Amino acid sequence: VDCLESWIRSLEPGVVVDPDPPVAGDAFTVASRVKYLLDGGALTREELEAVGNGDGTVNNDALESLAAGWMWGNGGGRVPTAAFFEKRRQFLELTLQQNPASRRFFYQLRNAAASGVADSLNESFIRTAERIVDEDSDFRTIASTNEWEVTTLVLLALTMTDHPTILRRSGVGDKNFLGNNISEMVRSPHFNREADAEDWRTVTLITDSREAPAGTAEDQLDLEACGAAYESEAFGELVRDGRPRIYDWTVMHPGDDLANEDGENGPQDVYTRCVPEHAQQLRAIREGDYLKLRAPRVGFFTTPSFFATWETNADNQFRVTVNQAMIIGTGRIFSPGDATGVNTDLSAVDPVLFPATSECFGCHKNLDRMRTAFTGVFDGVHSRYTEPPEPVPAPDFAFQGQSVSVTTLQEWAVALASHPEFARAWVLKLCQWANSIACDPGHEEVLRLAEEFEASGYQLNELFLRFFSSRLVSDTSFQAGTRTPGAQVSIARRGHYCHAMRTRLLRVNEARDNVSGQTSNSADLCALNGVETLSSSIPNDQFTRGTVEFNQPKLFGALTAVAFEGLCTRSANALVESRGRAVFDANEPSETLDLLTSHMLGFPAGSARFETERSVLQDLFDAQAREPTCADADQLAASLDGEGSCGLGLSNEDALRNVWSIVCQSPTLTGLGL
Q1: Which of 77, 124, 206, 224 is deepest in the core (most CB within 10 A)?
Q2: Which of 40, 42, 48, 96 is nearest to 71 (CA)?
Q3: Structure letter (DSSP) for residue 17
Q4: Given this model, what pLDDT does residue 255 score?
Q5: Checking phi first, is residue 646 left (phi over 0); if not, alpha (psi -120 to 50) or beta?
Q6: 639: pLDDT confidence band, cut at 50, 70 and 90?
Q7: Are 604 and 45 contacting, i.e. CB atoms less than 8 angstroms apart?
Q8: What are the beta bridge partners of residue 26?
Q9: Residue 674: predicted pLDDT
């Protein structure tokens, strides 16, 4: 019996010891990293004193208070500071995938780069998301909103892509036709590339006039009279009575009867005659107005930029579009093991390509049912509105535990927005962006933050605040190879580094009361003349096709080191000069060394770290500027250690330029997590 009892007890689980136990991080390290990520600036002495516990570890409640100030300033409210606005935009650009590799938008618009439209198109939905965040609205509406931030050129692109590509009689698209090529369109004197790319406003994109409030005024182009109207004296600013209005563009569609015809009232004729009035109508659409289209434009995944980022084709038929939308909205991809119940038959799944006995069927049984929400309204080559020659199978939404019967793309968008994985997906995106590691979906802090994000009504502002004061940021570990998020050390990728350098150089100018430096481009290190190629060689955060996690280079390579060295060396002449209006005045070496230590390296004045690093920079400067010239390397080494009496005999300007180059490449600036 004793042997049996002993054997049974040997099967009982013992105390599980965490092989990588997290510990509270050092206050200076944690707070410096959080400020670097949110604001870009250096930690101040007051901030350091406020954020630490008695034992030197970080106080998370105090960190939350500081993070709020770094994001929104100390004036109350949640208006983002200029520095945080830029960092938040970097995050949204990375996560919403609205930045195609080519600026041409070739299949949709033939050549958007030459016309200057690309920037407006790429920025449109980022601005839409920013409005949702600033209003503390439900962030899930990024997947379903039809209230977009637009310019006249964005509206032009939306109207042009609201009909199929116009073909010649031979069946080939006419590259010079106004309705196909936005570059040709904006060459018209009736559009102004500069002004029409900057007149931002919020416009609701509808497919049915009944989506607008009753009594909303409605305007249409008069295809017969629009040319004559332009020639008349009455053509001018559209008369407004204060009510919102709908601009019904759908009347402009050439339709099947005109798709291959020239001559009077053919597509080319109609476009040529109506461009002046169309330009006027688009420019007259104001804040709160409506644009009526045939194609439903809802959410981040129906923008021209998203279609251009993830170009589909006749074989792919929007499968890539659906998969990337799932990655953004849910942080998940299609899986053969997904047993979520479906709501439609198999008519959308090609039995030849994906037979029910194949491994591919496991994913395509869900994916292909979803894509018909797109193929019913957009063509699979040009991503323009289309009326399919034959009815497409009914769409469906069945994905990773959520099954919703849908009939339209708008309903599909709402189903994506309400997916139960949305909250956790966005916690994980923020966690990787900040910590340079794919975080554990089951981590207790990830689950807690997802619950709080949901409880807040999906306010992204609240998620940012709670995340950057959470243990996902403040905990560290002393284990080699640890996966503790807050313990990661990584290269500072281009977006983080260039923003931090710009912010810190601007604050150097503010500290010196250098008004000209605050308003010039001299603080924009990565955009200085002659260094753009070098700065662009610094790796950046990237999204990739079919992958949930970001691509984040973490290690210094030879080319990266060369890029930082070249950038810092070549920028020295522009930043360090012997004149008062320079960013760093070489006539004031003591002031310059103070600023390099506190504002650039980030060691608060008056702290022990400041005194140590300031002394190192002083020795470095003295060894270069001191005379007489050292006779050999040993003498120079002694001078660098603060023990010699010789130097290199350089001018203050050249010596400080060399010091700047070293500071600019320091790990506290080129690294994250140190």
Answers
A1: 124
A2: 40
A3: P
A4: 47
A5: beta
A6: confident
A7: yes
A8: 57
A9: 79
Q: Which two tokens stand for residue 621?
A: 């400067």
Question: 460 vs 44, 131, 410, 463, 511, CA distance in Å?
Answer: 27, 11, 23, 5, 33
Beta-strand pair 671-672/584-585: unpaired
Query: What is the pLDDT of the chain when averaged over all its residues?
Result: 90
Beta-carbon contacts of residue 545 (< 8 Å; ≥ 6 apart): 310, 320, 324
Answer whether residue 292 shows pLDDT above 50: yes
**160-193 pLDDT, tens digit each:** 999 888 777 666 777 778 888 999 899 888 899 9
Beta strands 217-220 and 245-248: pairing type? parallel
Distance CA(523)–CA(506), nearest Å, equals 6
In terms of Cα–Cα distance, which of 668, 662, 565, 569 is closest to 616? Answer: 662
How far is it, in rounded angstroms, from Cα 142 to Cα 416?
10
DSSP 386-406: ---SSPPPPP-EEETTEEE--
Least confident range from 92-101, 137-146, 404-413, 641-650: namely 641-650
Task: Order across the sheet with 147-150: list the strands.
Answer: 147-150, 201-206, 290-292, 245-248, 217-220
Distance CA 606, CA 45 (A): 7
Query: What is the distance of C-alpha 457 from the center of its chain?
Result: 22
Distance of CA 232 to the CA centre of its chain: 46
E strands, 553-643, where? 576-577, 584-585
Distance of alpha carbon 58 from alpha carbon 63, whole angstroms: 7
**CB-hemisphere CA count at 13 Å for 159?**
31
Q: Which contacts (CB < 8 Å, 24+ apart) does range 404-409 have? A: 404/343, 405/343, 406/343, 406/373, 408/296, 408/373, 409/296, 409/298, 409/302, 409/373, 409/374, 409/376, 409/377
Alpha-carbon gap, residue 368 to 379, rounded angstroms = 15
Q: CB pairs under 8 A, 24+ apart, for 588-592?
A: 589/621, 589/625, 589/652, 589/655, 589/656, 591/512, 592/656, 592/659
Alpha-carbon span 85 to 39, nearest angstrom:
9
Q: What is the spatial distance between Cα 634 and Cα 639, in angstroms, rounded to a whole number?
A: 9
Q: Is the pLDDT of residue 669 over 50?
A: yes
- Half-sphere exposure of residue 524: CA atoms within 13 angstroms, side-chain side: 9
Chain mean position to CA 49? 33
Distance between CA atoms of residues 503 and 492, nearest Å:
15
Residue type, 420: P
Read off the pLDDT of residues 182-229 as tens digits, 9 standing for 90 and up: 998 998 888 999 999 999 999 999 999 999 998 898 887 776 767 654
pLDDT tens per residue, range 7-50: 665 666 554 556 678 999 999 999 999 999 999 999 999 999 99
